[in-house]
Design goal:
5 helices, single chain, mainly alpha, about 80 residues, 434 Repressor (Amino-terminal Domain)
């Protein structure tokens, strides 16, 4: 089982990868249908929201998996 610190690092790494994939925070926000401020809050926290992770999973056709973006989540409320 991963430590809290390892999970935090994975979340931050995945977030950076998603932003690079999208090209910018603004592009990611547009693709996900959220405000740029929402993406900025993800960056500030160092992790994507659960709903955001599900949306990114969906819009990237699973290229970024929500379970990898948020390994701390045990159950998901949002359907793919």
């Amino acid at each position: 089982m991963k430590s809290f610190q390892e999970i935090k690092q994975q979340q931050a790494k995945e977030l950076i990868s998603v932003i690079k994939y999208a090209g910018s925070q603004s592009n990611l926000a547009r693709e996900c249908g959220v405000s740029q401020q929402s993406v900025h809050r993800w960056v500030k926290r160092g992790r994507i929201s659960k709903k955001g992770a599900t949306t990114i999973h969906r819009v990237t056709s699973g290229y970024f998996r929500r379970e990898e973006m948020r390994p701390d989540v045990v159950s998901w409320r949002y359907e793919l």
